[in-house]
Design brief:
CATH superfamily of the largest domain: Metal-dependent hydrolases
Distance between the termini: 44 Å
Number of helices: 19
Largest sheet: 4 strands, parallel
CATH topology of the largest domain: TIM Barrel
Order of helices and strands: HEHHHHHHHEHEHHEHHEEHEHEHEHHH
Low-confidence stretches: none
Strand order of the largest sheet: 4-5-8-9
CATH class of the largest domain: Alpha Beta
CATH architecture of the largest domain: Alpha-Beta Barrel
Number of strands: 9
Radius of gyration: 23 Å
Shape: globular
Strand content: 5-15%
Mean pLDDT: 96
Length: 466
Amino acid sequence: MKTFINDNFCLDNRFAEELYHRFAEPLPIFDYHSHLSPKEIAEDACFENLFQIWLKGDHYKWRAMRSNGVPEKFCTGNAGDYDKFIKWAETVPYTLRNPLYHWSHLELLRYFGIDDVINPSNAPKIWEEANSMLRTKEFSPVRLLRKMQVELVCTTDDPADNLKSHEKLKIKNPELKVLPTWRPDQVKALEDVASYNAYLLKLSEAAGIEINSFQSLLEALKIRHAYFHTQGCRLSDTGIDTFYADDFSSEGTEKIVGKILSSKSLDASEVSIFKSALMYELAIMDFESGWVQQFHQGAMRNNNSCMFRAMGADTGFDSIGDKPVANSMARFFSRLDQAGKLAKTIVYNLNPSDNEVFATMIGNFQDGETPGKMQWGPAWWFLDQKDGMEKYINALSNLGLLSRFVGMTTDSRSFMSYPRHEYFRRILCNQLGKDIEKGLLPNDTEWIGKIVSDICYYNAKQYFNW
């Protein structure tokens, strides 16, 4: 059976079609948040087969396969690549109305021109057809990025990373912008003191100074922050369960570091105070370097203890969290604003019940000078689907300025994830097209088309100034 993906997929009327095909479809992609491997981009080696490029490391697919009764050996286990692909092909028909169903067919069509609806009977043919293309140089990571018109990629990098792949890329492929993003999650991962001390040693080695106090920790971070800046980084990103904005003092934070270095466990209050101090100081560094700061809030990670012990993090056992966020977020930003140190900021929520909280919170701290200085980041992870994007567009439209939104990201580890930008663009154009059809917006496709172009590309280009 041929695919259901046609030229006007997700576009319900002629206004939506015109907005998409004229104004959104031709634009390059500005991917300011991804988890692509800079090492894989720098090495630019072709992928061995369809599993390696499409399924390996994809926890979205693993969750669906487990839900479909597929044993773990075909997800993260020792089954062969072909057998794992076949189990995925058996699962795809059962992902009906899950975003994976749309993504999977878009990805096969856009990258390989394969327009079949995936099922077990045509899986062997798809495997062979895709693999024959993957063996050619046209399907190396760099060429795939070019194929998808990706102008810029921001990866996700720990402060202790040496960024050697980024250095190599600047020499090898200077025309392709692949820039690091400062991701200091491990700097605040205090819950396991032994692991945290091991990380401090790693950070100390990278910075070239001994970390024996809170002040020396900050100095090490400043050294690494400055190094990231020399490598083109202008963007931080922090994953948080909630914002931390407790009162703290130099004396208190030094005592907490003393306990950590003595391998003593911290109580919940100490953890919260330390995270509050770190988040504030890191935000100051971002402001003083002229960076944009991002906060991805709301993930509840590693919920299955048995599977976490067996396989570690990022294997598909995370969910939406429900920690309170509004009061601490307001206090965090207010403290920075009072100090005159609030950088351009993008905040992302994972719990849809917080949509209106985030959409209204950003309005509290706009500065009246920089259009869209405070941004509510795009729907991500569990919300990165048609319904989630439509709810996002409606909430931001109702409570803020959709026209100043900096657009979609992939938030993915896969080089085959770029049709997610197309998916978002189609959904955006369809929402606006339906409003025109209903008479809720004027029939002025030139002006509304400009807004579409801005959201899909130009707003981000201006906001990040790259």
